[in-house]
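Blinded run. Sample ID left blank on purpose so nobody reads anything into the name before looking at the predicted structure. Input follows.
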Amino acid sequence: MSDVTRILSAIEQGDPQASEQLLPLVYEELRRLAAQKMAQENPGQTLQATALVHEAYVRLVDKEDAGVWDHRGHFFAAAAEAMRRILVDNARSKRSLKRGGGRRRVDLEANVVGQTPREDLLALDEVLAKFTVREPVKAQLVKMHFFAGLTLRETAEALSISLATAERYWAYARTWLFAELEEAEKDSPRENL
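Blinded prediction complete.
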């Protein structure tokens, strides 16, 4: 049992000092993931990687909302979800109508490596919610790989699936999400800004 898994178990059992022991063990990895994700954001982003890590960590170990984590991978999956929610909430507040609103098309393949505009992030979040109902494991893979910046190998390990399965899931998810985003764009034509 790794130190992280042991501490997660202690947090689950209500040990008040356990969450203090967890942060030093996972901080650098969470910071690396957050920095990767923040590098994909638009220039002028007010949220910094350190703030993203701290906000995600607070949400993860909050006494009232603390989750139950079976292992290290499960914890990082929860961290990916927390980071995704923070980024989406931040994008949503930036997109409000008084700040311009509107949507743009998302090319998932290009945006995994490149930048993801806030508006595209919101459109992606909407179709990802539908995908989560339909394909929860594949949606979790998208959240960890796209939003948290884990490699497919790291994501496969966290989800306890093979790398080949993760690659197939990623190809399927990317295709499904792209088709849904194109359909949403047809139904809601882009506004001229």
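Unblinding after everyone has recorded impressions. The two ends are 54 Å apart (CA to CA).
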